[in-house]
Amino acid sequence: MTVTNQSQQTQAGAPDTQVTNETGSSLFPTYARYPLSLIKGKGSYLWDDKGNKYLDFVSGLAVTNLGHAPDKIVNKVKEQLDELWHVSNLFTIPGQEQAAKLLTANTCADAVFFCNSGAEANEAAIKLARRYQQKVLGKGKFEIITFKQSFHGRTLATLTATGQDKVKEGFLPLPEGFVHVPLHDIPALEAAITPHTAAIMLELILAEGGIHVVDPEFLRKVKALCEEHGLLLIMDEVQTGMGRTGKLFAHQHYDVEPDIFTSAKGIGSGFPVGAMLGKGYLRDAFTPGSHATTFGGTPLAMAAVNATIETIIEEELPKRAQQMGDYLIESLRKELEGISFVTEVRGRGLIVGIACKGPVGDIITAGQNRGFLFVNAGPEVIRFLPNLYVTTEEIDTAVALIKTLIEEHVAANA
Ligand SMILES: *Cc1c(COP(=O)(O)O)cnc(C)c1O
C-alpha cells in the first residue's frame, strides 16, 4: 500500500506501509530540488523534458568542465565500454597507471590514490596524514585543523572537518580530532596548534562558503607554521581543480606546495572519480591493505580521466579559463556597478561569486524561467561555474541576463 502523507507515524518494525512525500517521490528528501527535469546536454546548453533550452553556468557544480557530452571524452569512454569496464584493484590497471603518471607529471605530487568522490578523496587525505604521523614518524598526532565556512564532504569524518554547523546537526557523536579556526586569522591558527595536531587542511577558494579566495601571504604563513610544527598541509581542490581557476590546480597560482591534495568534481568530465595525491615521502605510509575501494580507478573511469586530463593540457584550457574568467569578472563588475544590491564580484578564473545584500534564491528561480541556470554559494552569493570552453558571446548573454534579473529582483522588492 502507498500512503502519501508526510506526517504518517511509523514505528520501527511496523507493518509494510510505504509512505511517499507530496510529490510522490520515493527518494529520501536530501535535496531541495528545482522542478526542472534536464534530459539532454551538449556543450554549454541543457534541455529539459519539455524541450526548453538553458544556458548552463552550473556545470554540474564544477563537474562538466569540458561542457556536456564532450566528443573526445564520449568517444574514449565508448571505446572502453566495449573493451573492459571493471577489474579488481588486485590486478594492474594500465589506465590507472597512465592517469597517475599524467597527474604527477603536471603537479608537485608523486603518488595518486583513485576513488569515487570528493568526500572519499578527502577521507583518504585525512587517513594518509594520520597514518604518516603515527606509523612513519611514530608520533601520536591525529588532529586536523580546518577553517570556518569550509566544505569538505558528507562522510562522518569529512562533515566533521567541514567548518559549517548545519551539516552536522543530528549526527552526533562526531569523530574526534577536528578543530576549526577563521580563515586568514594567523593568531587563531597558532593558538589551535597542539602537540596532537597532524595537519592543516584548506580549500584555496572557499567555494560552498561564498567564493573567498585565500590570500597568498596567509598561505605562506600557514606553510611556515606547518614546517615549524611538523604538520602536513592538505589542500582540498575538489572544486578548484582541473583547470577551472586558471591553472590545472589552484595551488599552482601560489608559491606554496601542499603535501597532500585532492581532486574530484572535474576530473572525469562527469564520470564519478576522486583522487588523492601526495608527495613521495608520504608514499610508504600506505601499505597493502591500509586503504582501498572497490570502484576506485576502474578501466572505464580511467578512460574518462585520461581523456579529460589530456584534453585540458593539450588544449591549454587553464589558460582559457583564466582569460574567460578575467573577461567574465570584468564584465560583471562593469555592468553591475551602481546596483547597490550587489556588494562585490569576486573569484578566480571560472569560479565567480556575485555577493549580494539579501537572499538570491528568487533570482536563481527567475533565471531558470529565462533559460539561464546558475546556483548560489551560501544564501547571499550568486555563483557562476561555466564550462572551460565558454565563449565571450555566452558570457555577454549571461552578464546581460544577470543584470536584468538583479534589477527586476530589486524593483520587485522595493
Ligand atoms: C563538492 C566538494 C566536496 C565533496 O565532494 P563529493 O564528490 O560531493 O563527495 C568536498 N570538498 C569540496 C571543496 C567540494 O566542493
Summarize this structure briefly:
With 414 residues, this protein is α/β, with parallel strands linked by helices.
Count the beta strands. Answer: 19
Instruction: State the helix count.
Output: 11
- Name the structural class: alpha/beta
Q: Which small-molecule species are bound to the chains here?
A: pyridoxal-5'-phosphate
Strand content: 15-25%
Pathway: Amino-acid biosynthesis; L-arginine biosynthesis; N(2)-acetyl-L-ornithine from L-glutamate: step 4/4
Pfam families: Aminotran_3 (PF00202)
Enzyme class: transferase
Binding site for pyridoxal 5'-phosphate: 118-119, 151, 236-239, 294
Molecular structure report:
The protein is an alpha/beta fold and 414 residues long. The chain is built from 11 helices and 19 strands. It has helices spanning 59-62, 71-83, 94-105, 118-136, 156-161, 186-192, 216-229, 299-314, 317-336, 361-369, 392-412; strands spanning 2-4, 18-20, 38-42, 45-48, 53-56, 111-115, 143-147, 178-181, 197-202, 205-206, 212-213, 232-236, 260-263, 274-278, 342-348, 351-356, 372-373, 375-376, 381-384. It has a 7-stranded mixed β-sheet with strand order 6-14-13-12-9-7-8, sandwiched between helices. Strands 3-4-5-17 form a 4-stranded mixed β-sheet. Helix 5 links the parallel strand 7 (143-147) and strand 8. Helix 2 runs antiparallel to helix 8 (299-314), helix 9 (317-336) runs parallel beside helix 11 and helix 10 packs across helix 11. The longest helix has 21 residues, at 392-412. The radius of gyration is 22 Å and the shape is globular. Mean pLDDT is 95; it is low at 1-9. The structure holds pyridoxal-5'-phosphate. Pyridoxal-5'-phosphate binds at residues 117-119, 122, 151-153, 203, 207, 236, 238-239, 264-265.
